[in-house]
Amino acid sequence: MSKQRGCENCQAYRKEQLIRLGIEIDQYDYVIALAGNPNTGKSTVFNNLTGLRQHTGNWPGKTVTRAEGGYSYAGKQYKLVDLPGTYSLLSTSKEEEVARDFILFGQPDVTVIVADATRLERNLNLVLQILEITDKAVLCLNLMDEAERNHIKINDRALSKALGIPVVTAVARQKKGMDVLINTIENVATGKYVCKPHRIKSFSPKLDHAVALLVEKLSRKFKNIPNLNWVALRLLEGDQHIIEAVRTEELGQLSENLKSV
Amino acid sequence: MFNNQEIKSDDIISLTNTLRWELGIDFHDKIIESIYADASKIAKQSIQIEDAKNSTILDQKIDNIITSKWFGFPIMFLLLAIVFWITVAGANIPSSWLAAILLDTIHPFLKNIASQIGMPWWLDGVLIDGAYMAFAWVVSVMLPPMAIFFPLFTLLEDLGYLPRVAFNMDSLFRKAGAHGKQALTMSMGFGCNAAGVVATRVIDSPRERLIAIITNNFSLCNGRWPTQILIATIFIGGLVPSHWAGLVSAGAVVSIAVLGIVFSLLVSWGLSKSILRGQASTFSLELPPYRPPRILQTLYTSLIDRTILVLWRAIAFTIPAGIIIWLVANIYIGELSLAEYFIDWANPFAFYFGLNGVILLAYIIAIPANEIVIPTILMLTVINSGLTGIGEGAGVMFELDSVADTKRILTAGGWTLLTAINLMLFSLLHNPCSTTLYTIYKETKSIKWTAISALLPLTIGFIVCFFVTQLWLLFSS
């Protein structure tokens, strides 16, 4: 595949520039979050890129807290944060809170969503939820070998168009697709690729109005939160964690804390 | 609009409440519905399934069998039995190689050097017969089974079998008021309790995690399998004709392991009804697809992550123990060594429990690592019963080449079938080794829970041995 198109030859050439930094990440230019459903291979992608050996295994829920590592590519330093696997960002388990807080308040430059190609529909639920709270994302369609074995064909271009973010196919266990992935991450991080993420269509003008009212108030209280629409929605839904964070004014603090970690 | 005044967070909350009231309660569901609808639409647009006959159906067929009501547990026990059989059988050969190098070659070599440079006898004893021998013992007995067991276990994990074990055991553990994932940490404990305790990190609820930590010790660990197998072979296999001996002694060992699982459930239940009261939390466990394991990578990571880590800790704790064994056997007060004093003092007490002073002293000395229980027992028995011409001298750990020799020593030391059964029970039900206790302390950061983890199984062990002994004496007299 890579022989046919010029730019991919170019990536193969540039792959030489990947330097795995392990945990030595004092300085970095970009922060990359790795999110996704449990057991889709996030930790394997993480290990491939950082050269670390996070324990991987075929059962959901190994990564309980987030793991961090780094790599350097084309002269830029990337800090990679491996988040616990979650099915959604809407309920209240510890894993989901860790993942959600980081994507929302840690303000990663790019969120890489690792998805299981054999269970695309269910994985897309999380993808769409993440796209509600961040603008810059890349979908890494992992386990393409299993999809192929199951005779599932995925039109990655159509998918990319529908989601408004780049889609990279991969077999992380065999290190396939990693070169394209790091290049795509770079494109999104530097703004060469501008994402137009899919957003859930509004179904109620009343809700839009309520959200707008809240966002206006929130934006004066909390200056540097990226996606206040989402915060407003969660407030309206009665998410205790977010309500508490607003009441105690920790919302702004949360964002600062996560950035400094 | 005057936007420049200070906004109070309470205002935002009260505005939220008003707006939420106006919106009604069903809009949350509507958001979720529209996410699901969009996901489904996008998926349909971009997926094309060419052939309905796919391997997820095969996965389901396999799952229907191995998580079924009737076959689930038998298959689980069979697989575990196979793993243990490969571990025990496969470890013998490398164990004897390592023993030949470390014990039979390097040990005399070191002794030789020590005598040539004129090292004082006590220093030579402490360093070479004590510390070095303890180290050599743990490496030759512990390394091979761990190097076989951990990769096999990791292969099962990689293949996707562990979540099925958890699935099978889930309802039992939940009925006991514990977390279903405790089935996973319990399985890890069969390799090493310290590793099992670390694995409890997968359990979110602190209450359920503590239950999993405290009961992990009921999983018979690698260090205790050799004790079980040796004693079962000598005393229980010896009861039946020789062609049945292997099967019967293996059966005895498996019964002890199953008894451990039963205790794990009972104690979990007891804890969740008393000091760790609470509801079992639910969790959704997704059965992942079966994946062909990556053999080489598994070997590598399980060796680095598990084997070397656990071995290193064991060595760090065993070397001081080796020194202590040598000292108690060689420090004399009057006619008797410290070891003999203790044994004579503890014997009357120990007989109530069908044990003897030697076993108790061995379990105190062997707190650092269960592996050294059998050699310590043999060494102490030789000193105590005054046998001559066996072993290598006072306080030197050794293991005899043949099972028959071992039996001769133990019978001379007054062992009976009852002693053997109680030793097997006590080996299952006693305090965790110091490596595990240290890990428990590091994980819980609490002396109280570490103490409970140590004393609870020990107390249970004494109670069980006491009743077994009293009943035995009642029926045999």
From TrEMBL, chain A:
Leader sequence residues: none
- Tell me which GO cellular component terms the UniProt record holds: plasma membrane
* MF terms in GO: ferrous iron transmembrane transporter activity; GTP binding
Family annotation (InterPro entries):
FeoB_Cyto (IPR041069), FeoB_GTPase (IPR050860), G_FEOB_dom (IPR030389), GTP-bd (IPR006073), P-loop_NTPase (IPR027417)
The record ties this protein, via Gene3D superfamilies, to: 1.10.287.1770, P-loop containing nucleotide triphosphate hydrolases
Please indicate which superkingdom the organism of origin belongs to. Bacteria
Task: Tell me where in this chain the FeoB-type G domain is found.
Answer: 29-191
Q: Which PANTHER family match?
A: FE(2+) TRANSPORTER FEOB, FERROUS IRON TRANSPORT PROTEIN B
What protein name applies here? Ferrous iron transport protein B
Organism of derivation: Maribacter stanieri
At the highest ranks, the source species' classification is:
Bacteria, Pseudomonadati, Bacteroidota, Flavobacteriia, Flavobacteriales
TrEMBL record, chain B:
Going by the UniProt record, its keywords in alphabetical order are: Membrane, Transmembrane, Transmembrane helix
Annotated Ferrous iron transport protein B C-terminal domain residues? 253-302
Q: Which residues form the Nucleoside transporter/FeoB GTPase Gate domain?
A: 140-231, 311-445
Any single Gene Ontology cellular-component annotation: plasma membrane
Q: What Pfam families is this protein classified in?
A: FeoB_C, Gate
Q: Which residues cross the membrane?
A: 70-93, 131-156, 229-246, 252-271, 310-333, 345-365, 372-390, 410-429, 449-475
- Which GO MF terms does the UniProt record name? ferrous iron transmembrane transporter activity
What domain of life does the UniProt record list for this protein's source? Answer: Bacteria
Q: Which InterPro entries match?
A: Fe2_transport_prot_B_C (IPR011640), FeoB_GTPase (IPR050860), Gate_dom (IPR011642)
> Any keyword Membrane?
yes
| Name of this chain's protein | Ferrous iron transport protein B
